[in-house]
Every structure is written in structure tokens, then in C-alpha cells.
Write a structure and sequence with these properties.
Shape: globular
Largest sheet: 5 strands, mixed
Radius of gyration: 17 Å
Number of helices: 6
CATH superfamily of the largest domain: Beta-grasp domain
CATH class of the largest domain: Alpha Beta
CATH architecture of the largest domain: Roll
Helix content: 25-40%
Distance between the termini: 54 Å
Strand order of the largest sheet: 2-1-5-3-4
Number of domains: 2
Strand content: 5-15%
Order of helices and strands: HEEHEEEHHHH
Length: 167
């Protein structure tokens, strides 16, 4: 019985926002719950918990992923970035600056996931025009309907960083 309990709590070691985290975690723990409940990184929000809204978007090795559909154990040896790892109060990331400049947020609940998705969208080269941005950001729902402002923010951030490319 002890072997079963021990194997259900595998050791997990990965980078979160540039810092190595090493701990035991239940094998069934999602990355979302691990970030929020174990590391107290509450910027990553729980929305639908089914992978449909994008509210829990994080970057894993630079690629956007829904933390609610990813098991924490799947991140072993990987680099996870949450909103807490993007910019600082004194030096905002260009996407954060653009969201503020274009009022790309209203209630703010979806904003962390939107910002991380936007960072990836730009890095992937999908910020060349409004239609492409809308398509590649479509996995992130904004219940306040700030889509025009979010699109403008992504295009502006891409222009500011020089990463704007046509898809």
C-alpha cells in the first residue's frame, strides 16, 4: 500500500518564471491547481476548467498551453511562464503596456491569459494583421467583449517589439 501512495506523489522539478521548483505532487494535479494552490501564483485564473476559455493560459517552453488541461507532472524538466513572470511593476512587458494603452481589459479576469497568449501569438509570427490576430487569439474568451482593443494591443505590441510578421 505504501508503494501505491508513494507512486501517486511523484517528484516534480521544473522552472517556473525562471526559478527551479522541486516538490512532490499528486499525479492527477493539474498545472493550474499546482500553480495556484501549491505555489500561490494566483495570476493564472480558473475559468471553465475544461480548456475552452483560455483564462488559464500559460507558456510552457514558450508555447501557450491551457494549465487546466495540463498535468503538473507533464512539466518535469520544462520552463513554465505565468503572468507573474512577465514584466515587473517598474518595467512592464510591451504586451502589458499595449493592453493598458489600448484599454485591452475591462474586468481583468481573462487578462493574464490574454497577455500570455498575445506574447505567444507575436512570437509565433501571427500578428501581421487584425484578422490573423483574431484567429490566433480565438482560444481566449473575453466575456466583456474587449476584442477590438485586445486586437489593437497585440498589433501595437508586435510593432513595438519588431516581431510583427505576416502569418
Amino acid at each position: 500500500m505504501d508503494e501505491v501512495l508513494a507512486s501517486s506523489r511523484p517528484k516534480l522539478t521544473f522552472q517556473v518564471n525562471g526559478r527551479t521548483k522541486s516538490t512532490e505532487v499528486e499525479a492527477r494535479t493539474t498545472l493550474l491547481d499546482f500553480l495556484r494552490d501549491h505555489l500561490h501564483l494566483t495570476g493564472t485564473k480558473k475559468g471553465c476548467n475544461e480548456g475552452a476559455c483560455g483564462t488559464c493560459t500559460v507558456l510552457i517552453d514558450g508555447k501557450r498551453m491551457n494549465a487546466c488541461l495540463t498535468l503538473a507532472i507533464q512539466c518535469t524538466g520544462r520552463d513554465v511562464t505565468t503572468i507573474e513572470g512577465v514584466g515587473t511593476v517598474d518595467a512592464l512587458h510591451p504586451v502589458q503596456q499595449a493592453f493598458i494603452a489600448h484599454d485591452g481589459l475591462q474586468c481583468g479576469y481573462c487578462t493574464p491569459g490574454q497577455i500570455l497568449s498575445a506574447i505567444a501569438c507575436i512570437a509565433e509570427g501571427h500578428a501581421g494583421d487584425p484578422d490573423t490576430v483574431r484567429e490566433w487569439m480565438s482560444g481566449n474568451i473575453c466575456r466583456c467583449s474587449a476584442y477590438p482593443q485586445i486586437t489593437a494591443a497585440v498589433l501595437d505590441a508586435a510593432r513595438r517589439t519588431g516581431d510583427r510578421q505576416d502569418a
